[in-house]
Design goal:
Helices cover 4% and strands 26% of the residues. It contains one helix and 13 strands, in the order αβββββββββββββ. Strands 1, 2, 3, 4, 5 and 6 form a six-stranded antiparallel beta sheet that branches. Strands 7-8-9 form a three-stranded antiparallel beta sheet, with no helix packed on it. It is rod-shaped. It comes from Desulfovibrio psychrotolerans. Residues 20-85 form the Gp5/Type VI secretion system Vgr protein OB-fold domain. This is Baseplate assembly protein.
Length: 223
C-alpha cells in the first residue's frame, strides 16, 4: 500500500482556508481573483446571501480582504467568503445596537435598536415604486420638506382633517390671498376673479360697490 505523501497532505491542509485580498473582479461572470501573498488564484465565485429563487447582489471590489474556502485543499474549487475588516477599511460602527451600511459615495443606511430609529442619508435621488398601495403611518407628526416644490399627481387628492396653510393659496397661477378658510368660506384680503361668477343666495356688501360695466338686477337694466 502506497503511503500518501506528507508534503501533499500539508499542501492541502494549508489551502483549506486562506487569507487573501481581491486582486481583480469579473462582474459579468460573478468571479474574482484573490492574491494570497505572491500567489494569485484563478477566477473563483464569491459567497452571496441568496442564490436561488431569491437572488441577492452586492459585488466585492479590488482591495477587499477575504477568506478562500477550498474543499479538500484544492484552491481551483474554492469559494471566496467576503467581508473581513482591515486597516484600510475598518468597521463603520462600534456598538451591537447599530446595523449600518456605508457606501463609497457617502450614502448611509442604518438602524439603531437602542434609539428605535431608522435613518437613511442619500446624496442623490430616492425612488419608491409599487404596483399596489403605499401606506406610511406616524404615531405623532409627519414632516415633509422640499427645497423647491412638492408635486401631488392623482385623479383625486383627499385630505381628511383640517388643512392649514401658512402662506397663500395659488390655483393655476391665481393667488388667493394670505388667509383663506373653508368652513363657510371666509377670505381676508384683496380678491381678484377673472371670469364669470354665479351666486345662488344672498350677497351682503358692507362698503362701497364699484361697477365698471352694466349692473343688472332681475330682468331690468338701469339706464
Amino acid at each position: 500500500m502506497q503511503s500518501y505523501p506528507l508534503s501533499e497532505l500539508d499542501r492541502r491542509l494549508a489551502n483549506l482556508i486562506r487569507w487573501g485580498t481581491i486582486e481583480a473582479a469579473d462582474y459579468s461572470a460573478a468571479r474574482v481573483r484573490v492574491r494570497c501573498g505572491s500567489v494569485v488564484t484563478d477566477w473563483l465565485p464569491w459567497v452571496t446571501a441568496r442564490a436561488g429563487g431569491d437572488v441577492s447582489w452586492w459585488a466585492p471590489e479590488a482591495g477587499e480582504q477575504v477568506l478562500i474556502l477550498s474543499p479538500s485543499g484544492e484552491t481551483g474549487q474554492g469559494v471566496v467568503l467576503v467581508g473581513v475588516f482591515q486597516t484600510a477599511h475598518p468597521a463603520p460602527a462600534n456598538t451591537p445596537d447599530v446595523a449600518r451600511m456605508v457606501f463609497k459615495d457617502g450614502a448611509i443606511i442604518e438602524y439603531d435598536r437602542a434609539a428605535h430609529k431608522l435613518a437613511a442619508t442619500i446624496p442623490g435621488d430616492v425612488m419608491v415604486q409599487a404596483t399596489g398601495d403605499i401606506t406610511a403611518k406616524a404615531g405623532k407628526e409627519a414632516t415633509v420638506e422640499a427645497g423647491t416644490k412638492i408635486f401631488l399627481t392623482a385623479p383625486q387628492v383627499l385630505v381628511e382633517g383640517t388643512l392649514t396653510t401658512a402662506g397663500g393659496h395659488d390655483d393655476e397661477g391665481q393667488t388667493i390671498g394670505e388667509e383663506y378658510k373653508h368652513a363657510h368660506t371666509e377670505h381676508k384680503g384683496s380678491y381678484t376673479l377673472e371670469g364669470d361668477m354665479t351666486v345662488n343666495g344672498n350677497v351682503t356688501i358692507n362698503g362701497d360697490c364699484t361697477v365698471t360695466g352694466t349692473l343688472r338686477y332681475g330682468a331690468i337694466a338701469p339706464l
